[in-house]
Amino acid sequence: MNKRTMYEQLVIQTQMNYSQYYGVYASGGTPVKLTEKPQPSYDEQIKIFADKIKKADHIVIGGASGLSAAGGGNFYYTDSPSYKKHFAKFYEKYGFKGAFAGMQHRWDSREEFWSYLATFLYTTQHAEIRQPYKDLQAILKDRDYFIVTTNQDTQAIKAFPEEKVSQIQGDHRFFQCSQQCTDEVWDAVKPVEAMVNSTKVPTELIPRCPHCGAEAFPWVRGYGNFLEGTRYQQEYQKISDDLEKHIQAHDKILFVELGVGRMTPMFIQEPFWALTNNLPGAFDVMVNKDYQFLPEQIEDKGVAIKGDIAKVLDDVKAAL
What we know:
This protein has helices at 6-20, 22-26, 42-55, 65-69, 81-86, 88-94, 99-103, 110-125, 131-140, 155-159, 189-195, 230-248, 269-278, 309-319, and strands spanning 58-63, 145-149, 165-167, 170-177, 185-187, 216-220, 253-258, 283-288, 302-306. The chain is an alpha/beta fold. The protein is globular.
């Protein structure tokens, strides 16, 4: 087994916490003791956010599902207007309450399943860069930064150089062997383009592993047998190398959490909290439209902004 990278070790530690307190997370809470200090007003929080960006030696963005959702990528869990638009033929027939509901459906055939999956992947692969990512581009311009994301929708690597992005939960641009017979991942974009217009994908177009012939599957956690192989390790290595470089340089690091929900706090939020607590000069800005969690242990090293991410980033951009 490959040696665990520093950031992956942090994730594993917080996963244990998640398992122990699953009920708390599932109900929308956190087992971490939160500050009882009165929080600044929204306008003051925006000023703090902008000031920390100006003064930071290095900025680490943690982009979670709420970041893409704020720009219209909100079709995963609800039958939003964007879901009804992009998945129209399936919504009309099945009435799915979001893209993930379709992934969990028991399809009559693999051909129809792959038609749905191709629609799902095509929608993200070919989506334009969403406004919150454009605002991030403006905010981070000419600054030293890195981005770690749990989003698999390719928005981050469309908006930023790939060497500055770690996609630790997978990437809709790639297929893997569903049986993990090989460490390889390969292009999913062209096969998806060939399938997307079919109501039932011709059997011969269903992607298969070039080694064992098993069905391919998107290289993403959450749908099946996620391959934690070479590319997975490379994604964790990138964020670990970035952090270690700036920690060794004693840089002031600004961590920014954007849209971390209750399903996956172990990949961004809790590692960021731990790093902020342990690193001199570190500061954590948390932005979420539903939750306002500021741990007591970093109450003087963080700010939790409860608000729409799109508005917050637009306001920070204006403040800068």
